[in-house]
């Protein structure tokens, strides 16, 4: 018995042979053609359902991410803000830090649990290919790993075990691929993590200056050695993640503006899609028109229901 992959290849080859016979000698190795397909046809049935990748490494990294944010929350609140004598300083910084931390975790959750743009698995069946009504000599390109008809700009992820539309990369920190449907949430996640890291570093500096001028036993509810250790660890964490997430944020914004994913840049793939302005590319990811909803992880961007994709044939 043949495997599903082999059966898919037989469908492709059989289609090519049938097209050759119907075309009275038409050569299948002709110039590349493209068939516009509605986005609804290639949208996974799990797009509206909960999406979660069962990858041990990704789950561990996601848990670590939440623990690090919660650690920063603990140090900021119980070491720096609550013991402070300045009530206004504590309220303003506490509200700002908690708001940014909440948005960062919400963005992380949306990036992790949103279908990044998976192509329906195993849809490369004989019946479905025949429904495409290909012309003689035309053959669709199918992924041999997940037996899916792969649209243009889609790549197979070995971790998700699916082909992902406009896949940028697989990020273990969000335990998911960064693709067409969740790139906005990933960009917001990196932005808010960078902001809370910067905010935490500034508060650590002010707290150290305050403790040096005052008595160390009065500037914190913890002992002086414990306070120093907690602040140094938070400073190291904040500096590390500020650099890392700032670089990721800049890389993602550049990728969006140039309309070229990380994989496409790495593979130096030939541009086969229409070139748009940077502003149009930003609106395609974050939604249009521009509003404060761009910065909300609870707002789902409208990528355009009438958008079409091209099957390489």
In short:
It is a multi-pass membrane protein. With 313 residues, the chain is mainly alpha-helical.
Description:
By secondary structure, the chain is mainly alpha-helical. The chain has a domain at 56-117 and 168-295. The chain is 52% helix and 9% strand. It has a two-stranded antiparallel ribbon with strand order 1-8. Strands 2-3 form a two-stranded antiparallel ribbon. Strands 4-5 form a two-stranded antiparallel sheet. Strand 6 (169-171) and strand 7 form a beta hairpin. Helix 3 packs antiparallel against helix 4 (87-113), helix 3 packs across helix 7 (224-258) and helix 7 crosses helix 9 (278-286). It is elongated and about 85 Å long. The two termini are 28 Å apart. Residues 1-38 and 305-313 have low confidence and may be disordered.
Layout of strands and helices, then pairs:
Elements: H1 4-22, E1 34-38, H2 39-42, H3 56-81, H4 87-113, H5 126-131, E2 142-143, E3 148-149, E4 154-157, E5 162-165, E6 169-171, E7 176-178, H6 183-213, H7 224-258, H8 262-267, H9 278-286, E8 308-312
Antiparallel strand pairs: 1-8, 2-3, 4-5, 6-7
Helix pairs in contact: 3-4, 3-7, 4-6, 6-7, 7-9
Cα shape: elongated
User: How do the strands of the widest beta sheet line up side by side?
Assistant: 1-8
Q: Write down the overall mean pLDDT.
A: 81
Structural class determined from secondary elements: mainly alpha
Which ranges are low-confidence, i.e. pLDDT below 50, for 5 or more consecutive residues? 1-38, 305-313
The rounded Rg comes to 25 Å
Termini separation: 28 Å
Instruction: Profile the largest sheet.
Output: 2 strands, antiparallel
